[in-house]
Amino acid sequence: MKAVIYCRVSTTKEAQETSLVRQAEELTNLANRKGFEVVKIISEQASGYDLEREGILEILDLIKQKQIDGLLIQDETRLGRGNAKIALLHFIMKENVKLYSISHDGELQLSESDSMVLQIVSMVEEYQRKLHNIKIKRGMKRAVDNGYRPQKNLKNLGENGGRDKIDIPTEEIVKLRNNGLTFTEIASTLRGFGYHVSKATVHRRYKEYIDTISE
């Protein structure tokens, strides 16, 4: 498995710089014992409360690009502190990347309090996802109840299954708006029909249409 070694200290004092070297050496030994292929060693001097760290941002990119399977740290406090630590732990575990630490001589074992907070975060995220889907269904139902017929109005519906629709039908935005839907509901409705569009884009297209007919 491919992994990144991450070392962090909070200040630029000489003693802290020595700590970075020691962390890298110990984590390299841990990686060798656990059979990891180390693709990169990232060391930085920054506060653990800060999410905007170049090293951490690089690691998040590697994780998103599916280039690593594991992350090796001295302990969870090197990853971050406070809310920053929880946010990073949530992201890393959600992406199924394994965390290994020197303090546990293997896979990181979360404290009971951290585990509980992460469970709450995951639960809230799941309910946010459910609420988002409910909003889409509500917008679509309201549109259909008000006479909107997607199979009639949206061109090429179903002909390009799986393909993103780039052209946003302004005439449908106007129809939905005239039927009393908010811009948020219009955006949710169109996304439900395969149009990847934001509330801001819907509002802009509608405003452009109104400006055009007002000229």
Features:
215 residues, alpha/beta, Rossmann fold, 5-stranded mixed beta sheet
Description:
It is a single chain. The protein is built from nine helices and five strands, in the order βαβαβααββααααα. It has 215 residues and is α/β, with parallel strands linked by helices. α5 (112-145) packs across α8, α7 packs across α9 and α8 crosses α9 (199-214). The protein is elongated and about 70 Å long. It starts with a strand and ends with a helix. The model is unreliable at 155-166 (pLDDT under 50).
The CATH class of the largest domain turns out to be Alpha Beta
* Order of neighbouring strands in the sheet with most strands: 2-1-3-4-5
Total helical segments: 9
Query: Could you spell the SSE succession in H and E letters?
Result: EHEHEHHEEHHHHH
Query: Could you tell me how far the N terminus lies from the C terminus, measured between alpha carbons in angstroms?
Result: 63 Å
Major β-sheet profile? 5 strands, mixed
**Integer count of domains:** 2
Helix content: 55-70%
Ranges where pLDDT stays below 50 over 5 or more residues in a row are: 155-166
Structural class: alpha/beta
Radius of gyration: 25 Å
Strands, count: 5
Structural topology:
Blueprint: E1 2-9, H1 14-34, E2 37-45, H2 54-64, E3 70-73, H3 76-79, H4 82-94, E4 98-101, E5 106-107, H5 112-145, H6 150-153, H7 170-178, H8 183-192, H9 199-214
